[in-house]
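Shipment paperwork, digital attachment
Item: protein structure file
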Amino acid sequence: MIALGSDHGGYELKEEIKKYFDEKEIQYIDYGTNSPERTDYPIYAKKVAEAIVNNECDKGIIVCRSGHGVAIVANKFRGIRAANITSEEDAKFAKADDNINVLTLSGDNLSVNTTVCIIRAWLATEFKQGRYQERIQMIEEIENENMK
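Attachment content:
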């Protein structure tokens, strides 16, 4: 299950992602926003991150104008590894090497076609394990030290 969210700047791209998910029968929960009216991105980034932390969903996608702000918010949650992805290649590396569980995307800078390619690559790529898992464990240790 994929948690999906956006602010007003990512609303249109989020709606296109939903069409793609419906077409491919990919399960998701839309955590808002539900219109292009101005709103604040931390609200929706928090909802998506909490859905993953609370095991309602196993991964997430958040869209704002740049993708940066929502990545910052999501990464404030223990166990979230969010990255702002701009290409299919980025998606493959981020999943294979860092096992990201949240994609953050730019509603202003990504086409629907590029977004679909990014999502397909992210979903299809396997995490490498091995020394990369050791790095994830190091990240978890840092979280334990700093997220009390």
